[in-house]
Amino acid sequence: MVNKLIAIIIKELKDLFRDKTTLFTMIVIPLLFFPLIGLAFKTGAETTAQQTLNVAVLNLDSGYNKTKMGDSLIAFIKQFNNVNITVINNTNESITRLSRELYENKGINELLVIPRNFTETIYNPNATAKLELYSYVSAAGGLAIRSLDPILQAYISDIINWKIQQIAPNVNPKAIINPINISYISIVREEKIPSPPEIVHGLIASQSWTLPLSVFIIIVTSSQIVASAIASEKESKTLEILLSTPVSRMNILVGKIASSMIIAILSVISYVGGFTIYMNTILGLSSAQIPPEIANKVTQLVNSPQIIGGVAVLMFITLLTAISLSVSLSVYAEDVRSAQALVSYVTLLFGLPAFITMGVDIDQLPLIEKTVLYLIPFTHAFTGITKLIDGDYTPVIFGMIYMSVFSLITLYIASKSFTTEKLLTAKLTFKRRK
Amino acid sequence: MNDSFVNVENLVKDFGRRRVLKSISFSVKKGEIFGLIGPNGAGKTTTLRIIATLIKPTAGDVIIENISVTKNAKLVREIISYLPEEAGVYERLTGIEFLRFFAEMSTSNAHDAIRRGIEISGLGERLKDKTKEYSKGMKRRLLLARTLMNLPKLALLDEPTSGLDVQHAVQIRKIIKDYREKYGITIILSSHNMLEVEYLCDRVAFINDGSIVSIGTPKELLEKYNADNLEDAFLKAVSNYGE
Question: Does domain B4-87+153-242 have CATH number 2.40.30.110?
Fold first, then answer.
C-alpha cells in the first residue's frame, strides 16, 4: 500500500521534473526573477551614483560690489566628485539651440544659466535670485541620469545660512529654518520605529506586495500541473491502465496531489530564496533616503520566525485547497485542454482576492462585499499575510480552518469522483464549435 | 456450474438515455483466446471496460473465476490486465521505468515481471530511452509487454494492433499467441480485423449495436453462414439478426 503510493509519487515527480517547462516555470524562473530585478536596480543606482555629471554653465553674472556670486557657484559645483563643467561666458545663440548643440556634440544634457543680476539680487535682502536649469530631454535617454539639482539645493542651503548670518550674526540659522522639530515614530505591533509612517509602510509594502503575487502564481501553476497530470493520463488512456491495476484509487489521488504539492513547495522555496536575494540586494540602495537601521528593523519585523512560519503554514493550506479543487474539477475534463480551461476559470477565485488585497483593505469594504470575498477560501490566504505581519493571528487561524475544511470537502468529492466511472466517462470539453 | 473461466451474464449498460449494451452474455474458457468482433460503437470497448472493473454495468454481472466484477472489483484487479485501445505511455519515462512502475503497481514480484516485460517487448537497449522517442509500434509492444508481464489470469486486449503497420501487427499477434501457449493465459480481445481474429482466436462473438449476434469458433461461424471469410460471415450474421 505505502510502497505503491511511494512508487506513484516517484513516477509523478520524474514525469514533472523531466518536463522542462514545469521545471523552468516553477523552480528556475522564481530563483532568477527576483535577483535579476534586484541586480538591475542595484546596477542602475550604482551607475547613476558613479556617473560623471556633464553640465554646462552659461555665466552672465555681471557681479555686484566687486563680487561675482556666479563664479562662487561654479567653484561650488566643481568641488563635487565626477563633475565635468563647461563654462560659457557669452553666446549669440538661443538657449534651445545651445542646449541641443551641447547635448549632441558634448553629451551635456543640463545647462545652468546664471543671469546678469544674480549677485545683485542675492545681496538684496528683499529680492529672490533666479537660476534657470535647462535639461535636454531625449527619448533615447535613460531614467537613471545624475542631475545638477541636488548640488544646487546644497548651494541654496548655504546661501540661506549666509543670508541669515548677514542679517542676524548672533542667531543660529538652523534654529530659524527649523524652529520646531517633529520626531516621527511609527509603531508596528509593539515595536517603535523612529521613522515617519509612510516610510515604514512603504518598506513593509515593498516586502509584502510580492508575497500575494507569488502565492497567486504558485497556486495557478500548481493547479494547472495537477489538472493536466490527471487529464493527460485520461487523454492517453494510461489512467485506464492504472485504474485496472490492484492499486487503490485513493493512492493514485494522494500520489498526484502529493507530487504536485512537492513541486509547489519547491517552487515556494525557490520564490522565497529569490525574494531574499532581491531584498538583500535592494536594502542597501534605500539607505540614501531611509537609514539602514530602519530598513533592517522593518525587515526583521516582517521576516520574524513567527511570520515566516505562519506564511509557510498558510501557503501549505492554500496550495492544498487549490490542488484539491483542481483535482476535483479535472475529473470532469476530457483532455488536457479542457482541464486547463476549467482551471483557468477557477483562477478567477485566486485572482480576484489577490488583486483586491494588493490595493484595498478588505475589512474596510461594506459587509456584503466583504462577506462575498471572505466566502472565497483563497481570500484568507492573501489577507492572512498582512494580518500575520500586523500580529493579528485570530482571523488567520480562522482562515486556515476555513480553507482546511474546504480542502477536506473538495478532497472528499475528488476521492468520490475518483472511485466512480465519471473519471473515465465525464466529457466536459471546451473546444470551439466549428 | 460450467467450466467457464469468465461468465458475462446479461450485461446491460446505459450512458444517459442511450443503451450501449443490450443484455449480452457469453462465456470464455480457461486458456482460451476469445474475440469480440464488431464495428465501431458496437459495445466491444464498453464490455471490456466493465470486465476490467473500470465502469459498472447498469444490470448484469461478469464473474471471473467465481469473483464478481461488480461486487469485488479489487480482487478482480489482482487477476486481470487490461490494454486499452490506442493507449499511450508516460512519455517522459524510459521504457524500463514504465515497466517497473506498472510491475510495482500490479505484483509483489516486480523483478520477475520486469524481466518478462523486457523479454516480451523485444526492445533491448531502446528500453533505456524515453518512450517519447519510440515509434507507434514500439509503444504498442511496450504496452503489450506491460499487459502480459505479470502473467495475469485474464488479459483484456482492446484492438491490440489498431493503427499499426503490417510488420508491427504481425509481431504483436505472434507475442499474444506465444504467450498464451507458454503460460496458458486466458485472453479476451476486440478487433475490427477479421484476419487477426481468425489467426488468434479460438472462439469469437459477433457484436453489433450492443447485442451478441453469434458466437462460435471461426470455422463454425464460416460454416454456419456459408461464408468464405469472417468478414462475410459477420455481414450475413448481422443482416440475419435484424430479420
Answer: no
